Amino acid sequence: MSRPRLTSIVSVALALTLATVEPGVSAQSRSRLVRIAAASDLRFALDELTARLRESQPDLDVRVTYGSSGTFVAQIVNGAPFDLFLSADLDYPRQLAARGLTVEGSEFTYGVGHLVVWVPAASPLDVEKVGMEALADPRVRHVAIANPATAPYGRAAEAAMRGLGIFDRVKDKVVLGENVAQTLQFVQSGSAEAGVVALSLALAPTARSAGRFWVVPLNAYPRMDQGGVILRTAIDIDAARQFRAFLIGGAARTILRQYGFSLAD
Predict the structure, then answer these.
(1) pLDDT one-digit tens code per residue, 198-253
(2) Which of 134, 196, 210, 231 has the most CB atoms at less than 10 Å from its CB?
(3) DSSP state of 170
């Protein structure tokens, strides 16, 4: 068989293969994927939100990875494949915008986060009564907080302990979680006797009956406006915008309130 004839056959076969992939499905409908990098304090709230979204918008394929906001920034800068970034603060999305890595005008705020001091249900500490002072109790050998270097909730926890005048008394007890979800796991597993974690996690089904908590006053630490941004490398910017619209809509705001988020002004 001559080379031109073989080339012609291969070209026709390739064209037929491409034409018969998912017949009747357009390229646009195959690309309704939204890959989200989300702060770990959102784990339970966002799981519920995405389940609700699938009921009303089944064309969206939402895939969420949870972790610390600062770690995600480093990954995104280095080309990690995400379409939408949901941070535990607004500073990290703005850092990405300053690097030209986001869709212009796509930044948004979805809620205000809150801190709590959390102890297991069986703990002898009367955290509801003594609040942050519970961390200085001699029976507390380890106090878990998220790593302030990469987690906004860790920075807020340290600021709250300083603001309430207890940091110097407990700093030698502090153990760091990679993110605020891992911080709560430290306390739940017994690796720490108490932790300063996100209210949204304390209200989650797995923690609500397993522990007790005291809400840290908002004036004890800088306000935690939590926000997100669409990334410039999003494979389907319209799908990312669709999820963004859902997250700041009425149904989502109701669920976020249930998990302790205040609504942004």
Answers:
(1) 999 999 998 999 999 999 999 999 999 999 999 999 999 999 999 999 999 999 99
(2) 196
(3) H
DSSP designation for 102: B
Inter-axis angle of helices 237-247 and 250-258, nearest 10: 60
Strands (DSSP E) contained in 28-181 are 33-39, 61-67, 84-86, 108-113, 115-120, 143-146, 174-177
Quick one: which H or E segment has residue 47?
A: helix 43-56
CB 122 within 8 A of CB 136: no
- Give the pTM: 0.86
d(CA 197, CA 135): 13
Please name which of 190, 182, 189, 188 lies closest in space to residue 213, comparing C-alpha atoms. 188
Residues in the chain: 265
